[in-house]
Amino acid sequence: MHVYKNLLTRSFAVFIFLIALVQPLQAATPSDPNVAGFAGAEYWDVVRKGNEGKTQVQGAEAGSLINVQGEYWRYWRNEWITPAGAIALGGTLGLLAIFYLIVGQKKLDHPRTGKKIERWKRLDRANHWTVAILFIILGISGLSLLYGKFFLRELMGDSIWSVYIMLCKQVHNYLGPLFAVGLLFMIVRWMKHNFFNRVDLNWFLKGGGIIGNNHPSAGYMNGGEKVWFWLLTFVGIAVCASGLVLDFPNFGQFRETMQWANIIHAAGSLLLLAASLGHIYIGTLGTEGALEGMKTGYVDETWAKQHHDLWYNDIKDKPEN
């Protein structure tokens, strides 16, 4: 009799527990617009839309459990920008290599006179090399962050890779704002030389004198240098601005804003890197005497006559400062 009494008591307790467990589920019917059935379509619809409820998390997106836009970001970054950037960089390097093998370096048509003409002030050269060095470091670290996992990780091994990629991340984050400051200073200082005119149109029509012995006239900056300047201005500012958005998430940006900033930053950076390969080639291997001006500040009179004749005519009779 005692055994049956205990069994009846336990069964009654289990029955009460089941009623208490089922009661909240019955209250949470689909008729309530703020609650959905567990694991059903309505439940996930509520989760996706981010209905606000009780949470200890504070912030603009505290009511959003799933960021749906993240899938779109992943698609554009991995399916379009990453492969397109690799094609642009690899294609540009390949074309420049072929061009150099076929055409070679653009030599001076006449012997050097030995007379030097100042082309770049010391401040200009310091600004240029600061921006250039930062650009190269940011380019290497950024490409490592974007592409390194595909080949560097296996090459280095996990332990070295983890240290290297963390170093790239820190270098990229801290040097980025310095690059932005240097670039803005360069834009302001050089803008007066880079407005297009009719001389530049003729320069483009003649292909910049890269092939053959035809040397179209040019002022202080030729058409190609002006294109590079304005590309740096517009795309460079977009890259710097988007980088600052990514660098300082503590200003309360939405995740969607950060994702768009990442897309703009990656696409703009890859475009600048591909274009910079042409700029570097022309300023070093591609043109005899071009690098001397940015190294020493002075160019030979023959080089000035050949590549920037209008500028040479303006300053040839002026006394040196």
TrEMBL record:
Gene3D superfamilies assigned: Transmembrane di-heme cytochromes, Chain C
All copies of domain Cytochrome b561 bacterial/Ni-hydrogenase, residue ranges: 119-297
Compartment(s): Cell membrane
InterPro entries given in the database record: Cyt_b561_bac/Ni-Hgenase, Di-haem_cyt_TM, FDH_cytochrome_b556_subunit, Formate_DH_gsu
Lineage, opening ranks: Bacteria, Pseudomonadati, Pseudomonadota, Gammaproteobacteria, Oceanospirillales
Family that this chain belongs to: Belongs to the formate dehydrogenase gamma subunit family.
Signal peptide stretch: 1-27
Entry-linked Pfam families: Ni_hydr_CYTB
Origin species: Neptunomonas concharum
Residues spanning the membrane: 80-103, 129-151, 171-191, 227-248, 260-282
Protein name: Formate dehydrogenase subunit gamma
Record GO cellular component, one term: plasma membrane
Cofactor entry: heme
Keywords (A to Z) from UniProt: Cell membrane, Electron transport, Heme, Iron, Membrane, Metal-binding, Signal, Transmembrane, Transmembrane helix, Transport
Example GO biological process: formate oxidation
Keyword Repressor part of the UniProt annotation: no
Membrane topology annotation: Multi-pass membrane protein
GO terms, molecular function: electron transfer activity; formate dehydrogenase (NAD+) activity; formate dehydrogenase (quinone) activity; metal ion binding
